[in-house]
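Example record

Each entry pairs one chain with its bound ligand, coenzyme A.
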Amino acid sequence: MRFSAADSADQSVLVTEVGTRDGFQVEAEFIPTESKAAVINALIDAGVRSFEATSFVSPRAIPQLADASQLMDLIERKPGVRLTALVPNARGAERAAAAKVDMMACFVSASESHCQANLNKPIERALADVAEFVPIARQFNIPVRGAIAVAFGCPFEGDTPVDSLLRIADTYHELGVRHLSLGDTTGMATPPVVERAVDALQRRFSDMEIALHFHNTRGVGLANVMVGLQMGIREFESSIAGLGGCPFAPGASGNICTEDLVYLLQESGYQTGIDLDRLCEVARQVESLLGRGLPGQVMKAGQRLRKFTLDGARRAVG
Ligand code: COA
Ligand code: ZN
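Structure tokens for the complex follow.
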């Protein structure tokens, strides 16, 4: 087993920032649209190139993201920066296309219970909604990525059988979707669970790009990233400062933290194009914006070779 990038072809990792969607969606108090845009614009300046910026879902389901169209207008678009948004149905696809998203993400849960809680319908009908909106995206030349929620375990049903993942991924594939994102909605993934799921999907589809979306609910999020890296995965989704959660899954908490992920990748010889110090500055700004401390660790500790002066340090004088 090796723990660093093997060669230059292998070194590039795409970090997709999901904090303004997965993170902000659970915040009870409405965050002004300008503040959301300021976070994304600052992250673009720090080198982040891929975002799940918001979602075009029912504003009654997620009131915090009712401003999706206005937010898209306030983001300073730059070439090479991909702005994805979650889309549940044709109505969402029309709104997302009008807002000129670069990519739409459909999302279906691997368990019936979570699908019912999250989309108010069974898996079969949720997949039918995706089938209905993919042609709308295609009409606008917008690629669709397929997310699977509770991919590594469900808080209502327990372990997620690999067959449940394959069933949804098969439908996505038939619809022409070639980007798959496996969501660990309530942090139930562990290294062996990740290995089993990714292995099954890689065997089935040689032409699907797989991204992994972990939550750090039980503290093993970055260990799961290492497993993904070992298996050739080169895209991970994370939230600035470790924001995150799902309002329709009990016990959901923060995503893996973007700064901590970038630190791990950088120290392991992978390239993300992201400036870690600037990223930590944005993480601290997000703490100020929300008025509370957030779980990110590198923003507090600094990078590993940060040096302190002995003068100011406390000494254990006997
Ligand atoms: N954008 C805006 N409004 C939408 C919409 C969309 N994408 N989809 C539905 N609506 C509106 C309908 O127009 C309708 O409005 P009306 O009552 O004023 O006519 C209302 O919502 C109900 O529509 P319906 O199709 O019956 O939806 P539903 O109540 O069964 O909810 C979803 C289904 C999918 C729209 C809803 O469950 C949802 O948005 N879920 C997303 C949850 C989420 O984002 N979770 C976190 C991500 S993992
Ligand atoms: Zn999530």
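Residues 259 and 279 are 6 Å apart (CA to CA).
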